[in-house]
Amino acid sequence: MKSPRFRFPLMIAFLLALSCVQPAWAERIKDLASIAGVRNNQLVGYGLVVGLDGSGDQTTQTPFTVQGIINMLSNMGVSLPPGTSLQLKNVAAVMVTANLPPFARAGQQVDITVSSMGNAKSLRGGTLVMTPLKGADGQIYAIAQGNVVVSGAGASGGGSKATVNHLSVGRIVGGATVEREVPTQLGEGEYVYFELKETDFGTAQRLVDAINGSAPGAAAAVDGRQVRVRAPLNPNERVAFIGRVENLQVTPVQQSAKVIINSRTGSVVMNQAVTLDSCAVAHGNLSVSVTAENAVSQPNPLAAGQTARVTNAQIDIQQEAGALVNVQPGANLADVVKALNAIGANPADLIAILQAMRTAGALRAELEVI
């Protein structure tokens, strides 16, 4: 039996659409590079969500939830007798995470994500009580509290269960208030450093040319990723200068040819720099069929044997002859897609073919398996 073949039209259409794009386009510097030192800082904290409708942690299996409740009550002046066993259904232990943006000031509010760390069924309708958020240095930088918003719903009954979206993670918009500021140095002395998101010597040089075209002699490339720019020392003038530089248009150079293969999903993505040389490809399919037939072995009359069930298995292996296909050379993405599509292989087979073509030197691109 022949295995089904398909030409994965969605992927081909997507790649053809990419091939219609112009090979070069201008982008703003702020889309290609970031300023050194201007970055987010991650915050994390442990807290409790209360007010759940019986969907909280099972405290017998999550002792840290009980310990958290005891500590919170103790801080509020409520002491429980030793050995008290708490049976809580409306409380859930959660991890609270947030990103502290650069130049955040005390009193500014940031969004937070609340994630269940126990066995709570849902955080819907709960309220996060005051939770300190700490940085990597162990210092408290924000305080979080508020009503958790969960974009989902769930119901169960009679042994059936239905869930829409994820119920154990929620968000609170503006749920944390910044209490401590993180000093951010906008450059060192008279220089500001722009760092490309992707290392490329050609793009770095074009970045220097664009900045020097606006401010002659201000920029110099440090390496293939960093560009040093002389900026005014006055803070107001420096901010205005950086704002003008970030909006300058730069045409990045074409990236190196690369083919990305996802071995788990069978996805294949290639950029416009991929080219092909002439080659011949033969690829056949191998199919294995296993059939089992159950039978009964009956002994002769008056014999001492017993009736037994017997399974007769039959294995059939068929290999489809692969026709030799002449793959025409391709100088642009559209030609490459047409040549690969002419082979008629499915995405799983295409991965093996691309690897073999790269080994044979017919595929002018770097293969990266993720």
From TrEMBL:
Query: What's a single GO CC term here?
Result: bacterial-type flagellum basal body, distal rod, P ring
Q: Which Gene Ontology molecular-function terms are recorded?
A: structural molecule activity
Key words, A-Z: Bacterial flagellum, Cell projection, Cilium, Flagellum, Signal
Q: Where is the signal peptide?
A: 1-26
Q: Does the keyword rRNA-binding apply?
A: no
Query: Is Signal set as a keyword in this record?
Result: yes
Q: Name one GO biological process term.
A: bacterial-type flagellum-dependent cell motility
Q: Which InterPro entries match?
A: Flag_FlgI (IPR001782)
Q: Where in the cell is it found?
A: Bacterial flagellum basal body
State the similarity comment: Belongs to the FlgI family.
Tell me, in a sentence or two, what this protein's role is: Assembles around the rod to form the L-ring and probably protects the motor/basal body from shearing forces during rotation.
**HAMAP family the UniProt entry points to:** FlgI
Q: How does it assemble?
A: The basal body constitutes a major portion of the flagellar organelle and consists of four rings (L,P,S, and M) mounted on a central rod.
UniProt name for this protein: Flagellar P-ring protein
Q: Which organism is it from?
A: Sterolibacterium denitrificans
